[in-house]
Task: inverse folding
């Protein structure tokens, strides 16, 4: 790791100001940033730890779940309110990484990083979440702009994420065998914004909506409705764990399992 | 005496656990020496290139930098020696190119060390290493044996034409040709044995320390055999005589073969510590381990079996290309020859066998022994070939095996490939395994799985291995440059406790517990009155270390021999004290007594007398009770057994799950059943890992794609289920314990059982063979489109 | 240089560290607690697991400065003051759940957290999945799973005392 200056501000305004410096990096749970720094793949001048900004917490209303950006996966997974409102979201959080990752990793960090194999982006996109920052509210549909890239500006900090409560939802993940990240993760939801299905882990451009499946499910919410519906292998990632064709096939299989799991 | 039996056969809880479960282990990286510096090796990121220049100007000026060394600084130092010389078919010796400490003029694999940077802290060393400027001119590179052997391929080493290290053979070619000429049928199979990375959880580490006042060099290292390192490094690399060099291998966090070898980093830190007169510490990162720890396996083979009309095995032909990587590792050349082809008879009475092996230099990390070393390659080939025969002829896998087993009454059995099996009962292990696995109930389980949409398959492997390495005279004839005996020094202390200094090394095997049980059994001393010492060349007379499942069979036998001497001397002392003749003194249950009387002296009384010799036959007997034995085995030992695996495949995803695994092994005398069971379970887990998950993959450009735990699939708890272990033991006939060895059987017997099960599950898709690993994407490809090419 | 103050195994220390110092480096190199191991550099192996404020975390994936003000427990700190082993330590020995011992500290710390957070009890399958963050190369996990299973009743009985 290259050395850097470490700051742990107590107020959001101070954090935003610190992040204005050239090559500043925000540190949430650190589950991705620290491994990246250890590999010397990134050389920040300042690392701004967001732990003291009071950004964690869960609020559930009649039609939405709002989660503070620094809320850990373990907290989301264990939340009785979220289990009641969007059980698929709690289950997704409970399946990220391992116990140790869930103890430190945060929803804000995951969405800000937008790893193409991360789980939360699938939930945000499928549920039509709103990502709130120190500057604005961003709809999930315009938030994810490609692998590891988002609509966030350099000095923009996610403060919370709000999910409309769906009628039905489920997330099913097929893990890359070595890293245990999602090789294909499908979040299926039927909610206020209609039927939406988001796929993570497999697309070259990061998380994407499986629109052909959505159209089929809109008229017939069942796994059988997805028979014959597939994604193109053209935009799938390919590596030693699976070809693009295999990943495209898995998207179909896992999509059906997600619909079945959603009930 | 002990209230609880703690001798041979007891599952004594491990002595060493007390420190390991409390965080009090003492691994190499836990050691820090006063004034210590840290080193980072700048490694090649190219598979094959000329070094056109190294500019260390900027790096030298970085904060904390103490020294920077390149190949030029090591000009007076030898290369890393190879411990085994193989000869070609024509009798000429193998090509043996120099293996320099740091790359000299050329890099030959990604990970080849080029520059050694020493600084006050590890981070400073890493910072400086980044500031180095190394110029390269790329050369064509080869990851696969086949490509490196192709006509016109660029030379990895100028002194190894055609990239061939050796072209070796074993067996009677004419007799084998004759067997094929009269065959009713020939079954052929092409197969690969996948490249693996051992990945012990403790990364390698080495600390060089130099004491100016005594001109003494000390190396602390993560080694399975400190005396071997002292010999190789002292005599062949650095020219330091044994009495000026101490090698310490403290607690070592797993080895699995890859910590046998003498590595460049060990020599470099030892040399540099003297050069800068400060301790130098190196600890590998995991990503560095992937490109610098010797890899395992990587065979490309063709096998044929000649059969008569009744499916009796008449003859076997094998041709193998073995990838040795970019340099000869310590035992690299021995693995695909004497540790492989000598096992091709397996458990079968095949009368004629001929095997030829081409060993090849490639632009990959050197390949050497990994758990099983050659024997897993042999068992995979033989047991896959047997199932291919069943596929082609319709024979039943159990019946065909039984029909061709070496009979119970045929021992000692001389194979056509040099070795002689002393004992075994392959029928017994097979029958018990069939029973434990409820083999007869498989069709019902298959039907139940099919009803759930799953493909269920069963596979077995009746394997054999050779271990207890090794008779020195024999291995000397075969090209070994060392003896392979073992040494034990048994020191009875004045108050009757016992310290044993063993030349073997424990890095997970539990020697401190098992070896103490031998002392309990033979000397009648309580288990907690025994201390087993290993891993320090200054404390232990000599030793060859731990690998090849040799520690109990060879090292334990040395202990038995040393304790025999202790008892003999004790009888002389007792004879004096009891005023009887030595012949009349018997030793039993910790007491020396005059036969037929109640006159006796305890072991403790004899020990005290030996050290306080006031009433003692001092004219004819030296004081003290401290004996050493060197034990050289008369033969290898031959554990074997039967592994039965049952898998379920999800045809939608291609994911294969092992739903039942039954091992029934013959490991000879068992000292601690709990430890033996743990060794077998661990070995099976590594075998299942090879069969389904693990794979070291190079791309066409020579980069290792599976270069971290993010891409190299290590078995985790949820990849495995319970592993049923049983034994049907026959005793080794030539060592005093009757022990055969248990460390490698799991990794040798299991891969073919798993793949046979996968092929069985996929039989409806016309699959005859599948190379490892049976990963989900590969299996799915077979199911969808019957892409047999994807399997092979 | 920045300073970090934390309580490790009940003892409070203030140490100067570079910002880039990892928690595991602080524990091993500055505080001499070498029971916490480093087995990889991609946060996969779990040899470095310690407890921070009661949660198991990977000490290789956390800056020392992030641990400022926390209570850290390492493998050296789980036995009772009189040396009585923690039930998880006892069961690891009883069931031969370790061989080389290198993964053991992290494995034990993870296992304690896993069992403590699931007082309702864990099935064999749940234990296996709960160990997703820890690699062992020696045992094949068989005996680790047995040890953790056996420790459940002991730990819950102790917690109820």
Result:
């Amino acid at each position: 790791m290259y050395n850097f200056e470490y700051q742990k501000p107590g107020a959001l305004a101070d954090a935003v100001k610190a992040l204005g410096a050239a090559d500043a990096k925000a540190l949430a749970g650190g589950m991705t940033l620290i491994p990246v720094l250890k590999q010397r793949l990134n050389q920040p001048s300042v690392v701004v730890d967001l732990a003291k900004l009071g950004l964690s917490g869960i609020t559930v209303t009649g039609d939405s779940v709002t989660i503070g950006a620094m809320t850990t996966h373990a907290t989301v997974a264990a939340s009785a309110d979220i289990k009641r409102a969007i059980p698929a979201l709690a289950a997704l959080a409970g399946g990220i990484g391992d116990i140790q990752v869930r103890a430190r990793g945060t929803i804000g960090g995951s969405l800000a990083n937008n790893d193409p194999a991360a789980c939360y982006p699938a939930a945000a996109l499928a549920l039509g979440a709103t990502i709130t920052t120190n500057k604005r509210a961003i709809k999930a549909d315009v938030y994810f702009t490609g692998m590891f890239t988002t609509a966030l500006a350099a000095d923009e900090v996610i403060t919370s994420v709000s999910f409309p409560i769906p009628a039905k939802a489920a997330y099913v993940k097929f893990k890359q065998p070595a890293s245990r990240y999602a090789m294909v993760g499908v979040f299926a939801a039927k909610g206020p914004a209609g039927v939406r299905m988001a796929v993570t882990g497999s697309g070259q451009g990061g998380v994407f909506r499986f629109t052909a499946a959505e159209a089929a499910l809109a008229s017939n919410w069942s796994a059988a409705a997805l028979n014959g519906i597939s994604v193109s292998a053209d935009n799938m990632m390919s590596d030693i764990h699976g070809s693009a064709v295999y990943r495209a096939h898995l998207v179909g299989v896992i999509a059906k399992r997600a619909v079945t799991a959603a009930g | 005496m002990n209230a609880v039996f703690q001798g041979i056969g007891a599952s004594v809880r491990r002595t060493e656990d007390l420190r390991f479960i409390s965080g009090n282990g003492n691994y190499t990286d836990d050691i820090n020496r006063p004034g210590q510096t840290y080193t980072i090796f700048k490694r090649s990121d190219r598979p094959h290139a000329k070094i056109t220049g190294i500019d260390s100007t900027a790096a030298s000026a970085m904060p904390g930098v103490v020294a920077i060394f390149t190949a030029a600084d090591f000009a007076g130092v030898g290369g890393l020696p190879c411990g085994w010389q193989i000869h070609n078919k024509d009798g000429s010796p193998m090509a043996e190119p120099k293996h320099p400490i740091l790359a000299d003029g050329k890099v030959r694999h990604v990970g080849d060390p080029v520059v050694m940077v020493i600084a006050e802290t590890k981070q400073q060393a890493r910072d400086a290493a980044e500031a180095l400027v190394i110029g390269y001119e790329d050369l064509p590179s080869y990851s696969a044996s086949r490509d490196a052997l192709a006509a016109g391929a660029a030379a990895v080493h100028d002194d190894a034409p055609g990239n061939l290290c050796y072209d070796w053979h074993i067996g009677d070619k004419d007799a084998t040709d004759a067997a094929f000429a009269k065959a009713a049928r020939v079954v052929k199979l092409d197969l690969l044995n996948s490249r693996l990375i051992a990945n012990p959880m403790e990364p390698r580490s080495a600390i060089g320390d130099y004491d100016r006042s005594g001109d003494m060099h000390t190396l602390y290292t993560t080694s399975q055999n400190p005396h071997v390192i002292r010999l190789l490094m002292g005599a062949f690399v650095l020219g330091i005589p044994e009495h000026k060099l101490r090698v310490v291998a403290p607690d070592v966090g797993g080895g699995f073969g890859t910590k046998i070898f003498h590595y460049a980093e060990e020599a470099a830190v030892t040399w540099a510590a003297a050069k800068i007169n400060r301790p130098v510490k190196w600890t590998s990162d995991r990503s560095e381990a992937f490109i610098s720890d010797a890899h395992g396996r990587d065979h490309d083979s063709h096998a044929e079996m000649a059969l008569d009309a009744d499916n009796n095995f008449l003859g076997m032909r094998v041709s193998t290309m073995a990838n040795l990587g970019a340099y000869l590792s310590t035992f690299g050349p021995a693995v695909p020859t004497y540790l492989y082809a000598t096992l091709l008879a397996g458990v079968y009475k095949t009368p004629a066998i001929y095997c030829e092996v081409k060993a090849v230099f490639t632009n990959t990390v050197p390949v050497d022994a990994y758990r099983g070393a050659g024997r897993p390659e042999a068992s995979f080939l033989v047991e896959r070939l047997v199932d291919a025969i069943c596929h082609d002829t319709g024979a039943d896998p159990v019946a065909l095996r039984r029909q061709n087993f070496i009979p119970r009454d045929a021992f000692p059995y001389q194979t056509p490939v040099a070795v002689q099996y002393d004992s075994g009962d392959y029928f017994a292990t097979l029958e018990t395994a069939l029973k434990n696995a409820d083999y007869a109930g498989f069709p019902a389980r298959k039907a139940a799985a099919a009803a759930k949409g799953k493909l269920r398959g069963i596979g077995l492997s009746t394997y054999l291995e050779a271990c207890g390495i090794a008779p020195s005279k024999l291995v000397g004839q075969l090209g070994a440059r060392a003896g392979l005996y073992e040494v034990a020094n048994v020191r009875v202390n004045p108050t009757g406790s016992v310290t044993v200094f063993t030349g073997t090394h424990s890095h997970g095997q539990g020697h401190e517990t098992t070896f103490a049980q031998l002392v309990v059994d033979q000397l009648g001393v309580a288990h907690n009155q025994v201390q087993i010492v290993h891993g320090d060349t200054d404390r232990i007379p000599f030793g060859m270390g731990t690998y090849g499942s040799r520690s109990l069979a060879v090292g334990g036998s040395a202990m038995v021999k040393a304790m025999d001497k202790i008892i003999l001397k004790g009888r002389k002392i007792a004879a004096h004290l009891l005023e009887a003749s030595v012949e009349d003194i018997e030793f039993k249950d910790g007491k020396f007594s005059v036969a037929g009387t109640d006159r006796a002296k305890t072991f403790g009384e004899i020990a005290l007398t030996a050290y306080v010799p006031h009433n003692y036959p001092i004219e004819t007997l030296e004081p003290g009770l401290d004996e050493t034995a060197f034990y050289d085995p008369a033969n290898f030992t031959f554990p074997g057994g039967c592994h039965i695996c049952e898998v379920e495949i999800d045809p939608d995803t291609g994911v294969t799950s092992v739903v039942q695994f039954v091992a029934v092994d013959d490991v000879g005398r068992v000292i601690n059943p709990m430890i033996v069971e743990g060794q077998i379970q661990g070995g099976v887990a590594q075998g299942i890992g090879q069969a389904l998950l693990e794979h070291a993959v190079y791309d066409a450009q020579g980069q290792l794609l599976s270069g971290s735990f993010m891409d190299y699939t290590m078995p985790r708890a949820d990849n495995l289920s319970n592993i049923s272990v049983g034994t049907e033991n026959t005793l080794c006939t030539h060592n005093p314990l009757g022990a055969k060895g248990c460390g490698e059987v799991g990794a040798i017997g299991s891969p073919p059982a798993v793949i046979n099960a996968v092929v069985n599950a996929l039989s409806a898709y016309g699959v005859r063979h599948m190379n490892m690993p049976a990963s989900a994407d590969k299996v799915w490809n077979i199911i969808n489109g019957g892409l047999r090419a994807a399997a092979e | 240089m920045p300073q970090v103050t934390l309580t490790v195994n009940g003892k409070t220390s203030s140490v100067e560290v570079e910002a880039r110092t990892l928690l595991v480096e602080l524990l091993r190199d500055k505080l001499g607690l070498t029971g916490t191991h480093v087995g990889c550099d991609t946060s996969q192996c779990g040899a470095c697991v310690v407890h921070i404020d009661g949660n198991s975390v990977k000490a290789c994936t956390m800056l020392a400065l992030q641990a400022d003000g926390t209570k850290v427990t390492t493998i050296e700190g789980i036995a009772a003051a009189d040396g009585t082993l923690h039930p998880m330590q006892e069961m690891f020995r009883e069931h031969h759940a370790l061989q080389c011992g290198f993964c053991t500290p992290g494995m034990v710390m993870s296992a304690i957290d896993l069992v403590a957070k699931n007082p309702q009890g864990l099935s064999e399958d749940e234990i296996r999945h709960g160990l997703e963050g820890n690699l062992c190369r020696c045992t094949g996990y068989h005996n680790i799973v047995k040890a953790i299973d056996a420790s459940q009743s002991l730990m819950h009985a102790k917690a109820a005392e």
